[in-house]
């Protein structure tokens, strides 16, 4: 891992995966975006093209940089490209059995010295690494949405992650123009543990009729300088994702702050899972909030 990463494979072409593939390719790394669903791969690639085009339109990216980035980007519907990759970044659903299966498969075919990274926001790196014969090469690289804009990269060091792997992750963060923080492998790491508590309490406040969703979010934006309120952020991340993380942290830590609010469970049951569904705590149209979701208002007792 002393040589710079040249070839990467991102498995999972959803919201996080395609964003991670974009920033890797922009940083000069030959990158393959993989998803078993060809439609998801196609949509992910299209979103990368859209992001790059917007960058050109805003003067943040040249035509040549966009074209060079796309030239370094490939797509696939199998994990075969892992056999020649220096880096795996896994961005599949937050289910340990799925991640463990992928890491075992990657371990069997990836070259010696490769880094095996997970974008998990809450699952144990040690548990993921246990599926491999090289736990020293396994690390968490937790990116934030939208990946091409957000500057933070949370590096999660497992109990057996080597110093060489950690340094390679730090070097990669610098190459991606990200600010890295390093946390140990603990439930929720730093960001999810804090963010879930704040988001859950905002949901309970909405559920109790303390204030509207917009006013709760405005309080955190204007009073505490948050770039986005906790309810809008939950919509952006996905309420189904937030529910899974919250339930996992409650199981691990047992404190009431992580107990999933009833309102969150109800919205997920209704399929109102946030921006990707067009409704969560807010109503969304063309990626913009257009109003509050009536289904997220306080319900009669």
What is shown here, in short?
With 301 residues, the protein is of the alpha/beta class.
Using the alpha-carbon principal axes, give the shape: globular
CATH superfamily membership of the largest domain: NAD(P)-binding Rossmann-like Domain
Which fold does the CATH topology of the largest domain refer to?
Answer: Rossmann fold
Number of helical regions: 11
User: What is the mean predicted local confidence, pLDDT?
Assistant: 95
* Biggest sheet, spatial arrangement of strands: 3-2-1-4-5-6-7-8
Under the CATH scheme, which architecture of the largest domain would be assigned?
3-Layer(aba) Sandwich
* Portion in beta strands: 15-25%
Radius of gyration: 19 Å
Strand segment count: 10
Reported for the largest beta sheet, the result is: 8 strands, mixed
Assembly state: single chain
Report low-confidence residues grouped into runs of 5 or more: none
How many angstroms does the end-to-end distance come to?
59 Å
The ordered H/E elements are: EHEHHEEHEHEEHEHHHHHEE
């Amino acid at each position: 891992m002393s040589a710079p990463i040249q070839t990467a494979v991102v498995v999972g072409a959803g919201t996080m995966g395609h964003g991670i593939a974009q920033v890797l390719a922009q940083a000069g790394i030959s990158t393959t975006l993989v998803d078993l669903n060809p439609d998801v791969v196609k949509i992910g690639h299209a979103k990368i093209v859209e992001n790059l085009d917007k960058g050109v339109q805003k003067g943040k990216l040249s035509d040549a940089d966009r074209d060079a980035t796309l030239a370094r980007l490939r797509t696939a519907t199998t994990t075969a490209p892992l056999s020649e990759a220096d880096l795996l970044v896994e961005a599949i659903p937050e289910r340990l059995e799925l991640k463990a299966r992928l890491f075992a498969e990657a371990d069997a075919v990836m070259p010696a010295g490769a880094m095996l990274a997970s974008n998990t926001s809450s699952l144990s790196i040690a548990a993921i690494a246990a599926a491999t014969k090289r736990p020293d090469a396994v690390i968490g690289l937790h990116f934030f949405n939208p990946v091409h804009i957000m500057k933070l990269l949370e590096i999660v060091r497992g109990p057996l992650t080597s110093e060489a792997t950690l340094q390679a992750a730090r070097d990669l963060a610098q190459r991606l123009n990200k600010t890295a923080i390093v946390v140990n492998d603990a439930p929720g790491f730093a960001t999810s543990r804090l963010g879930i508590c704040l988001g859950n309490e905002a949901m309970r406040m909405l559920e109790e009729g303390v204030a509207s969703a917009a006013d709760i979010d405005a309080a955190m934006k204007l009073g505490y300088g948050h770039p986005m309120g906790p309810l809008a952020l939950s919509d952006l991340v996905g309420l189904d994702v937030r529910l899974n993380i919250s339930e996992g942290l409650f199981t691990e830590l047992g404190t009431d702050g992580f107990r999933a609010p009833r309102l969150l469970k109800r919205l997920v049951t209704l399929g109102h899972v946030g921006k990707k569904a067009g409704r969560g705590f807010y109503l969304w149209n063309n990626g913009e909030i257009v109003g509050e979701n009536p289904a997220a208002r306080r319900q009669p007792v």
